[in-house]
Amino acid sequence: MNTIVYLIFRRMRRPLLTLLIVYSVSILGLVLIPGQDASGNPWRMDFFHAFYFVSFMSTTIGFGEIPYEFTDAQRLWVSLSMYAGVIAWLYAIGTILTLVQDKTFQDAIAEHRFARRIRGQRQPFYLICGYGETGSALVRGLTDVGQHVVVIERDAQRANMIKLENLRDYVPTLHGDAQKPLHLQEAGLESPCCEAVVAVTNDNEANLKIAISSKLLHPSIKVICRADSADVEKNMASFGTDHIIDPYETFATYLSTALRVPCLYLMQRWLIGHIGDCRLADPVYPPKSQHWVVCGYGRFGKAVHQRLVEEGIEVRVVEARPDLTGEPRHGVILGRGTEADTLLQADIETAGGLIAGTDNDANNLSIVVTARDLNPNLFIVLRQNQSDNGSIIDAVKADMVMHPSRIIADRIRMLLGTPMLHRFITQAYHRDNDWSCELVSRISAIVGRCVPELEEVSIDEYHAEAVTDALGEGEHIRIGDLLHDSWQRDRQIRCIVLLLQRGEEEILLPGPETGVQPGDRLLVCAGRGGLRRLYWNMQNAGILSYVRTGEVRTHGWLWSKLFRNGSGNGH
Questions:
Q1: Domain 2-101 has CATH 1.10.10.10
Q2: Which of 44, 399, 455, 552 is disulfide-compatible with 563, CB 3.0–4.6 A?
C-alpha cells in the first residue's frame, strides 16, 4: 500500500499543485476585484463566497452570479479562471489516465490485492517459487489431488499463463522475484497455513537464496529445493534445507536401481504415477554384461557414468568438448555421437546400452537413430530437455527417458502429497528383488492396468470414527479386519497397507494380524474403489462389526434386514 500511495503522489504532484495554484489565484482575484450590490454600492466578495463560486464554476453547473450580479471586471476574471481551470483539470485527468495505465502502478495494485488475498487464506497451501516446466508440472500434480498452492514467478508471461491453464483449483500468482524476502512474505511465507516452500527456478543461486530466506524468516517451515551443483547443495544443506533434489543424481539412482533391483524400479514408477493414468509402465531390464556408450559428459553424463562404473559395467564416453566438461580417467572419444564414425569408435555394434545425454534434444534424437541403425538391440536411455518435444521423444520409444522437470516434479509431489511413500521406498531399497517382485504382483492384482491410488490414512475420529470408538472400548482391531469386503466378507477389498507409522516406529508391509492403535498412520495402496470401501469400513460401526465378526450391531429393523439379505446373498 505504501508503494501505491507513493506512486500516486509522485505522479500527481504537479497536476495537484497546478490545480491548487489555479484555484487559489481564482479565489483571490474574486476577493480583490471590487463589485456592486443590488443598490449599486461598492461591495467585495468574501473568501467563503469566492470559494463556493469557484467550486461550482469548475463543475460547469452554472448556478449564476452570487450573491449579486458581477461587474464587467469580475466577469472577465471569471472567464479567465474558467478556462484556466479547464486546462488544469485536463492536465490532471490526463496524468491520472497515464498513471492507471502505467505498468509499475498496475503491478503495485496487483501485488497489494495478492497480499491481501493471501492474508485471508485459511486453508493449508504450498508456496511454489518458479513456474517453468518443473513448476507447472508440480502445480498441476498438486491441484489434481486437491492441494492448494501459491506461485511466485519472475517472468510476467509465464505468470499470466497460469490463468489460461485448465487447473482444478484457482492458483494465486504473484509476478515478482522470490529472492526478495518481501515477496516471500507477501506470498504467505510466515502464514500459519503455509506448509512448505518449494524453490524450483532454473537458477541455482536463486534457489539457494530462497532457501536461506525461508529458513531465516520461518525456521520451522519445510523447504524443498532444486539444485544441480554439488557446491550449492552443500550450501543449502548448511542452512537446514529439508530436501535437495538433483535431477541428474536422482535419475542415476533410478538407473542403478533398474540394474540391481528391476522390480523395485518398476514398483516405484507405478507408485509415483499420475492418478487416472491407465497405462502402467512395463518392466525394464538394462543389460549388465556388455559395455555402455555415454554420449555427453556434462552433469548428467558424469552422474550416470559413475553409477554404471559402480555396477561394474565398462563405459565408453563420447564428448565433443572435453576441454569444458572434463573427461573420465580412461579418456573420451571426440565427437557428438550423431555421426556413425564416432559411434563405431565406441564399438556401438557390440554395446549393450546407449545413453543419449546431451543438453540438445535434436542431437539426442539423432544419436539414437544413428545408433539403432548400427545396433538395433541397444537398450536406449534418452534425455529429454524440453517438454514441447514430448511427442517426438515418445516416437523414438526409448527404454528409459530422463526428463529433469518431470523427475523433480514427481519427487516433490511425493514428498508433499504422500511423505510416507518416500520413507516406504527408502526402506524398500534394503530388500532384494524377489521381495519387490512379489509386491509388484500383489499391486498388479488389485489395480489391473491403472496407476494405483495412494493415500495416508490416519486412525483418528475424523478418518476412522468407528475404529477409534471400538479401540476406546478396549476392543482389538487388526489390519486384516479392515480389509474385508463389507458386501462379501470372505473377500478382500482392493487395498494393500504398505507402511504403518506409529510414533517413531515404522512397520513395512504390516501383516493382517497387526493391530492398529489411535494415532497410527497407514500408507494404503488401492485399486479402483478400494479407498472408498476402506473408509466405509472404518467410519461405520455396523459395517466395522460385520467385517470383523460377521455380525452386525443393528441400529433398526431396516438396517438389520438389509445386512441379513446382503450377507446371505453375497451382494
A1: no
A2: 552
The residue length of the chain stands at 571
User: What per-residue confidence (pLDDT) applies to 8?
Assistant: 80
Q: Cβ distance 326 to 298 under 8 Å?
A: no
- Measured CA angle at 258 (ends 304, 386), to 5 deg: 55
Using the CB atoms, write b or e for 529-540: b if 16+ within 10 Å.
ebbebbbbbbbb
Tell me the three state secondary structure of residue 379: strand
| Cα-Cα end-to-end distance for the chain | 64
| Per-residue confidence (pLDDT) for residue 560, from 0 to 100 | 55
Q: Which of 558, 526, 338, 358 is nearest to 450 (CA)?
A: 526
Compute the distance between CA of residue 499 and CA of residue 215 in angstroms, rounded to an integer.
30
Q: Is 484 helix (H, G, I), strand (E, B) or coil?
A: strand
Bridge partners for 507 per DSSP: 500
Burial class (CB in 10 A: 0-12, 13-18, 19+), 480: middle
Does the fold of domain 253-422 match that of domain 2-101? no
Tell me which CATH homologous superfamily contains domain 452-569: Regulator of K+ conductance, C-terminal domain (3.30.70.1450)
Grid coordinates of 491: 473377500
Boundaries of every domain in the chain: 2-101, 124-245, 253-422, 452-569
The per-residue pLDDT for 229 is 81
Bridge partners (DSSP) of residue 455 are: 524
How many CB atoms within 10 Å of residue 240?
A: 12
CB 531 within 8 A of CB 447: no
> 199: exposed, middle or buried (C-beta count within 10 Å: 0-12, 13-18, 19+)?
buried
When the pLDDT of each residue in the chain is averaged and rounded to a whole number, the result is 89
Beta-strand pair 222-226/243-245? parallel
| CATH top-level class of 253-422 | alpha beta
- The answer to whether 405 and 133 are in contact (CB under 8 A) is yes
Measured distance CA(206)–CA(200) in Å, rounded: 9
d(Cα 479, Cα 500) in Å, to the nearest integer?
A: 10
Torsion on CA atoms 463, 465, 469, 475, rounded to nearest 10: -60
Q: Which residue has the cell 505522479?
A: 11
- Topology (CATH) of 124-245: Rossmann fold (3.40.50)
Give the whole-angstrom CA distance, residue 164 versus residue 193.
26
Under-70 pLDDT residues of the chain = 1-3, 60-62, 275-277, 552-571
Closest to 333 (Cα-Cα) out of 300, 295, 361: 295
User: 3-class DSSP state for residue 128?
Assistant: strand
Collapsing DSSP to helix, strand or coil, 402 comes out as: strand
Q: Which positions ≥6 away from 313 have C-beta within 8 Å?
A: 259, 288, 291, 292
Between CA 555 and CA 561 the distance in angstroms is: 11
Q: What is the pLDDT of residues 201-243, one digit of tens each?
A: 989 999 999 999 999 999 999 999 999 888 888 889 888 899 9
Mutual angle of helices 204-217 and 230-238, in 10-degree steps = 0
Closest to 259 in 3D by CA, of 281, 284, 290, 286: 286
Among residues 152, 111, 93, which one has the least CA distance to residue 2? 111
Q: Edge to edge, what strands does the sheet with 505-508 contain?
A: 453-458, 521-526, 495-502, 505-508
